[in-house]
């Protein structure tokens, strides 16, 4: 048991420097706490284009750092939250938003699996129905005679 505890603590110690990379540098933060809070709120809604499943606030990628700086510069310049977000969307498209707005494109993305499942069920139902219909078809007199002749040979 001591060995397992030692290995666990050793691995935890090795991973500690990795966690430290995600911390923002103090020079990146705005001096005004209200503006910094706004910047963090906006950054939490923007996708890191490198990591793709993290916000730019959580990512340590160089591009995420650059995007955080842009957000803070625009806030410092007097842009409101919507203007900053719109600037990012204009530049990078709706993909940059972690929660994109509901549009026809996003509706297709959400409903395609359901539509595929419905189409698959309909195809399976029609195929099984045809199979049962073919299996239940009786032979005519001529076909039965021909079959008995073939079986005698």
UniProtKB/TrEMBL annotation:
One of its GO terms (cellular component) is plasma membrane. It is a single-pass membrane protein. The chain crosses the membrane at residues 107-128. GO terms for biological process: cytochrome complex assembly. InterPro entries: C-type_cytochrome_biogenesis, CcmH/CycL/Ccl2/NrfF_N, CcmH/CycL/NrfF/Ccl2_sf. Residues 15-151 form the CcmH/CycL/Ccl2/NrfF N-terminal domain. Required for the biogenesis of c-type cytochromes. Possible subunit of a heme lyase. PANTHER family: CYTOCHROME C-TYPE BIOGENESIS PROTEIN CCMH. Belongs to the CcmH/CycL/Ccl2/NrfF family. This is Cytochrome c-type biogenesis protein. It comes from Commensalibacter papalotli (ex Servin-Garciduenas et al. 2014).
